[in-house]
């Protein structure tokens, strides 16, 4: 691994830590192995073991989290302990996969596990943070790492309310002053990142509703609680009511994904179920959302004399990028790849449990471009045919390495 770099900083300072061809090839192979063996949230035992083995081979001392999956590892803290000072920069990766089939054809590294796929790029995120750890470990041996850096490999990002909360309880933020992460973006070319100060994702909660009432014959709906009608009104009226009870710029939205009720065309049922999501662009509005949504459902259900039972599952708040840490990522990317390697990005409606870390310490998430330049096929996240241009792994490692070297002591 060469200590030289092609990127010059202002003042003719040089950033060390470029990747050798051998390490690039190793990281691609590591990512492909993860891609072939996806594991769901809190089941990532093979993934955890693979990360641990490679970090230990590099002389590091990773620790498995209490639940048995996920790891934390400090680079540059010779004692191997988790604490490295209040100014430590943390790099976070999520390691779990999705419960969907891999539909890629003629791909030698497609998933070997039925109905499981790394369709959100977590295998790339994991490989980037592990690769950064290997580079930083070498820099530390050369005396070129200015301060310790923490690697966090977090399980269960796809499981509400996210594995970040459990990782935080295990102490992964102890001694951390700032935290950064990337998320694959198939709309951004490989070799580039997307950045945004402020909210870059949305809040996402889960909603389960059960409606009950005396049923009966469809010939006599006036003697029943017409539960199908009541359910239909909840579906259509609740999103409209919710949207009028907060500032429209907050983007608070209820969207239904499942409705079940009834078994026969001439029988008014006694039970109905609905489930969906609550998404919100604004952090303050998200904190009010449970009371607003529950009140709206109760109002509509009561109007139709239906009894409602509501389960509101708190998910994740928006990821709100700290301006200073966002500029750290910008400076790091420009130092490695030049001014043209950074583009603006919009706030998405997707949820990300990286937000839980940002409730504790300032941090930022960048969108890592994984689209092959010139490719016209549009691939989206959470789809079975998702794949990434693997040159993005090198870009991610360069970004995180530069951020670790540029991270100020105060």
Structure description:
The structure is a single chain. Helix 1 (21-36) runs antiparallel to helix 3, helix 3 (122-141) crosses helix 9 and helix 5 runs antiparallel to helix 6 (283-303). The longest helix has 21 residues, at 283-303. Residues 1-13 and 79-85 have low confidence and may be disordered. Strand 1 (63-64) and strand 2 form a beta hairpin. This protein has two domains: 10-200 and 319-406, Zn peptidases (Aminopeptidase, 3-Layer(aba) Sandwich); 203-316, Alpha-Beta Plaits. The protein has 410 residues and is an alpha/beta fold. It has nine helices and 16 strands. It has an eight-stranded mixed sheet, covered by helices on one side. A four-stranded antiparallel sheet has the order 10-12-8-13, with helices on one face. It is elongated and about 85 Å long. Helices cover 31% and strands 23% of the residues.
